[in-house]
Amino acid sequence: MATIAMMVGSAILNATAFVGGSYLAKYLSSGSESDALFEKKRHDKALERHEKDYQEHNEKRQKFLAWEDKNRR
């Protein structure tokens, strides 16, 4: 019986913490819509820059691997 009570109590505590954490995050991040829009734009630009750099890295890597393969023979 005590085990069941502990399981139910843990489930209630877990749900409370989850809902409370979500509420707190929403409350703290509700500064303004312009801040969220600015962060989204900044994130998108950083993601584009990362993808471009990663593509350049892969191209250089492929060239190096081709060069290495050619020089091994």
Largest sheet entry: none
Binned strand content = under 5%
Helix content: over 70%
Shape field? elongated
| Tally of domains | 2
Q: What oligomeric state do these chains adopt? A: single chain
- Head-to-tail CA distance between termini: 75 Å
* Helical stretch tally: 2
Specify Rg, calculated over alpha carbons. Answer: 26 Å
**What class would the helix/strand composition place it in?**
mainly alpha
| Series of H and E elements | HH
Uncertain residue segments: none
Please provide a written account of the structure.
The protein folds into two domains: 1-30; 32-73. It has 73 residues and is an all-alpha fold. The chain has helices spanning 2-28, 33-72. The model has no long low-confidence stretch (mean pLDDT 85). The chain is 92% helix and 0% strand. The radius of gyration is 26 Å and the shape is elongated. The chain is built from two helices and no strands.
Short description:
The chain has 73 residues and is an all-alpha fold.
Helices and strands, with pairings:
Elements: H1 2-28, H2 33-72
Overview features:
single chain, 73 residues, 2 helices, elongated
